[in-house]
Amino acid sequence: MILADKKILVTGGAGFLGAYVVQRLVASGARRNLIAIPRSKSSDLRVWEQCRNAVKGEDIVIHLAAKVGGIGFNKENPAELFYDNLLMGIQLMEAARREGVKKFVAIGTVCAYPKFTPVPFKEENLWDGYPEETNAPYGLAKKMLLVQSQAYRAQYGFHAIYLLPVNLYGPGDNFDPATSHVIPALILKILEAKRRKKPYVTLWGSGRPTREFLYMEDAAEAIVAATLRYDKPEPVNLGSGQEISIRALAILICRLCGYEGKIRWDRTRPDGQPRRRLDTRRAQKEFGFKAKTKLEDGLQKTIEWYQLRNSKS
Fold it and tell me: Does NADP show up as a keyword for this record (predicted)?
């Protein structure tokens, strides 16, 4: 596929991941003036007519828009996370099909995997159980996009693909304490403890669960590579293939932030899924993607970006 003449809709294109994807599209030959980025204030994808308006005349739709949050946000807003994400995705794909969009790229989530999945997670394990409870409404809503994309391909010959990224991070991440994910939440708490010269910082859970993280520039590269070169019904994992415990991650962030206090774990708070690490071989085989950014390097860039932003505010 050549992008130079393609009209591309990137939902969520003004957001964290979306900004990186737009940059990568342009670097891969897309014309910036042909990339449409709908804004939620004027284009509510929960409304059918606004979905139809958004996709009219587009050649490619990359659906990144989502309502997301960390464990606390997920526990407090399960209904909204299910309804909003399901409705946005289902309506947008149907509108894209009706309007003759040539390719639809659906972005799923690692939260769609069963709570207890053999590590590393293989795409064929996706239906082997129920997701971790705090993430289930969000994970299942996004998982339905896989069902829809496969059904539309089978019945209509619609070119839809489904990608499964792990936890993402990088400069520009969401540092709102109410909705942030694990890496910005840890950076925020640790830098605040350092600023206040606190002898310890209290973090959620036991620190035992493991996670895998993918730097935003790598994630954008993977999404654009799949847009260009992948056209099959099977889902594809996007990750770094590296696993780290939350405890080890917190210690690493403390070192990078220059915080020398102790870490206390609040075991009354949930841990979430016990382990996460993806089998990333399909992405490498199908469209040549392999993550390049080491976790420590990506964390250093993220911390420096946050500190610079705060120094200007």
Answer: yes
Q: Put the strands of the sheet holding 35-36 in their side by side order.
A: 35-36, 8-11, 60-63, 103-107, 160-165, 236-238
The residues spanned by each domain of the chain are 8-172+211-242+276-293
Spatial separation of the C-alpha atoms in residues 37 and 19, rounded to whole Å: 10
Instruction: Find out whether 168 is annotated in a ligand binding site.
Output: yes
What is residue 263's three-state secondary structure? strand
Which DSSP category does 102 fall into?
A: S
138 is catalytic: yes
69 is in an annotated binding site: no
Catalytic residue among 20, 113, 138, 306: 138
Nearest-angstrom CA–CA distance, 311 and 313: 6
63 to 92, 102, 106: CA distances (angstroms): 8, 14, 5
**Which regions of 89-137 does DSSP assign to beta strands (E)?**
103-107
2.40.50.140, 3.40.50.720, 3.40.1350.10, 3.40.50.1220: CATH of 8-172+211-242+276-293: 3.40.50.720
pLDDT digits (tens, 9 = 90+) for 6-36: 999 999 999 999 999 999 999 999 999 999 9
Q: Say if residue 33 carries a ligand binding annotation.
A: no
- Whether the ω angle into residue 120 lies within 30 degrees of 0, i.e. cis, is yes
Q: What is the mean pLDDT of residues 84-99?
A: 97
The predicted pLDDT at position 113 comes to 96
pLDDT, tens digit, 9 for 90 and up, residues 65-91: 999 887 788 889 999 999 999 999 999
Return the minimum-mean-pLDDT range out of 65-74, 93-102, 181-190, 288-297.
Answer: 65-74
Is 105 labelled as part of a ligand binding site?
Answer: no
